[in-house]
Specification:
The complex is a heterodimer of chains A (about 150) and B (about 350). Chain A has about 150 residues and is of the alpha/beta class. Chain A is built from six helices and five strands. Helices cover about 40% and strands about 20% of the residues of chain A. Chain A has a five-stranded parallel β-sheet, with helices on both faces. Chain A starts with 15 loop residues before the first helix and ends with a helix. Chain B has about 350 residues and is α/β, with parallel strands linked by helices. Chain B folds into three domains: about 55 residues, no CATH class; about 210 residues, 3-Layer(aba) Sandwich (Rossmann fold), CATH 3.40.50.300; about 55 residues, no CATH class. Helix content of chain B is about 45%, strand content about 10%. The radius of gyration of chain B is 23 Å and the shape is globular. Classes of the chains: A alpha/beta (about 150), B alpha/beta (about 350). The interface between A and B is large, with 47 and 47 residues. β2 of chain A pairs parallel with β3 of chain B.
């Protein structure tokens, strides 16, 4: 995985959780478009639940719009995007841009198959972190928690 | 923290949000509430988080919402896991929206008792929730609070009501007391079963008879649907249902069959409540029930962490200088009752 991408959260960022709650982190998990491989996402959902997070599971065939709608209604802290069809360089930046265009600062964590050579480009695009097939349950939970801490508004 | 960035931040370097000098929580709540009244989904989402979190913020939200509540018809949808509640609720929401209602759905799922985490998967079955113009859907985890969830859910329903939703569905897994409590805060409760779920004896055992205003046999395209309906009707023949006999509707949520009929009965039940002036009675009972729960919770906290006068009395009791019954009575007396007599039992 890459580390938290620079620029996702500035030092002056309002720390959502520090300010307002000691409630479980809420993360929306989804796949965009016609990528039908959701086994990994289901495993991640279970990992996060077992780590004490609240998973709002959207599953397959979502759009950036449907994910944003869920983020707003559910007041989610993090978007977890699973990508297994090789479309990460298109789909992940599209999600990040959609979040920004909506005026939200909700970090996007990508999970799935991403070649090492693409990691930097995803970080540049504003993806908070990328979790590959080798990521442990602890690593997954830690990354999502770190992302939640970087959420603003 | 009250204000969101007004424009989209530059892609490469998102601007820090406007600072919020000394934004006290109530101000924050007031601002968010005003935005909620203007149909701002994001503000409503945040206020629901406050409501869920409990404490002073939740109280502030409740205080803002309370004067604006009462307009919504609240429908509980409950039943065993896998019976099709989410899909049914989605269908009902679509019918209600087509009927011109502003619809909200509160979907409650259990938290893991071990880790406190939860997988809230109801949105997967709610296709209408994914599109603009669909219902406002909020997932809520039970978070292992025994009495707290019912209160949090009630607070959320009030807030959704105050936000201008006139048709609110509350979906719970009907397996525990907490879920039953939530269902009871609804104006109309739909109990969903599926073919092969059991016979009339099961129904009586499960206490469904008392809960349901409307029964729906979902998955009615499967064998045994007619049997399930017959068993329910037999059970209802035994009486106990006052002047409203719960109808038994057959439905196939995946195709939408029966959704119109189900929604028709929802409307009829509401009219029934109005015609028999029982709507007001029900609301009054709900408010009384909420007061009871809140007081109960308050007492639980007081006993778990005694402070002030309660701590003094606990010390007295522990030292053997005061009988527990007398200490409890004194405390109850100071709670506002002239003589805490009702609390006095031979303990």
């Amino acid at each position: 995985m890459t580390g938290p991408a620079a620029g996702t959260a500035g030092p002056q960022a309002e720390r959502h959780h520090d300010r307002h709650r000691r409630q479980p982190v809420r993360v929306v998990l989804a796949k965009l478009g016609l990528d039908g491989h959701d086994r990994g996402l289901k495993v991640v959902a279970r990992m996060l639940r077992d780590a004490g997070l609240e998973v709002i599971y959207l599953g397959l065939r979502q759009t950036t719009e449907s994910i944003l709608l869920a983020v707003e209604q559910e007041d989610a802290d993090v978007i977890g995007l699973s990508i297994h069809n090789g479309g990460h360089l298109t789909l992940a930046p599209r999600m990040v841009d959609a979040v920004r265009a909506a005026g939200l600062v909700v970090p996007v964590v990508v999970g799935g198959i991403v070649p090492d050579v693409d990691l930097e480009r995803l970080a540049e695009a504003g993806v908070f972190a990328v979790l590959g097939p080798g990521a442990s349950a602890a690593e997954v939970a830690e990354t999502v928690r770190a992302a939640a801490a970087a959420r603003r508004i | 923290m009250t204000v969101e960035p007004t424009g989209a931040p530059a892609p490469e370097h998102p601007a820090p949000p406007p600072s919020n000098p000394a934004g006290s929580p109530p101000d924050d709540v007031a601002a968010l509430f005003a935005r909620t009244r203007n149909g701002d989904r994001r503000a409503l989402g945040r206020l629901l988080t406050y409501t869920e979190g409990g404490g002073p913020l939740a109280d502030a939200v409740a205080a803002s919402a309370w004067p604006l509540t009462g307009g919504a018809h609240v429908v509980g949808v409950t039943g065993a896991p896998g019976v099709g509640k989410s899909t049914l609720t989605d269908r009902l929401a679509q019918v209600a929206i087509d009927d011109g209602r502003r619809v909200a759905i509160l979907a409650v799922d259990p938290s893991s008792p071990l880790t406190g985490g939860a997988i809230l998967g109801d949105r997967v079955r709610m296709g209408s929730a994914a599109a603009a113009g669909g219902p406002f859907v909020r997932s809520m985890a039970s978070r292992g609070q025994s009495g707290g969830l019912a209160l949090a859910a009630l607070g959320a329903v009030r807030l959704l009501d105050a936000a201008g939703h006139d048709q609110i569905f509350v979906e719970t897994v009907g397996i525990g007391q907490v879920e039953v409590d939530i269902a009871r805060t609804a104006d109309t409760t739909i109990v969903a079963v599926s073919p092969g779920w059991g016979d009339a004896v099961q129904a009586n055992k499960a206490g469904l008879l008392e809960m349901a205003d409307i029964f729906v046999v979902n998955k009615a395209d499967r064998a045994g649907a007619a049997d399930a309906r017959r068993d329910l009707e037999h059970m209802l023949d035994l009486g106990h249902h006052g002047d409203w006999r719960p109808p038994v509707v057959l439905a196939v949520a995946t195709t939408g069959d029966g959704a119109d009929e189900l929604f028709k009965h929802v409307g009829e039940h509401r009219r029934h409540l109005r015609d028999h002036r029982s709507e007001g009675d029900r609301r009054a009972r709900q408010v009384a029930e909420e007061m009871r729960r809140r007081l109960h919770r308050w007492v639980d906290v007081l006993v778990a962490q005694p402070s002030g006068r309660a701590a003094e009395l606990f010390t007295e009791v522990a030292a053997g200088r005061l009988a527990p019954s007398l200490a409890a009575r004194r405390l109850a007396g100071e709670l506002g009752r002239a003589d805490g007599a009702g609390a006095e039992t031979g303990g």
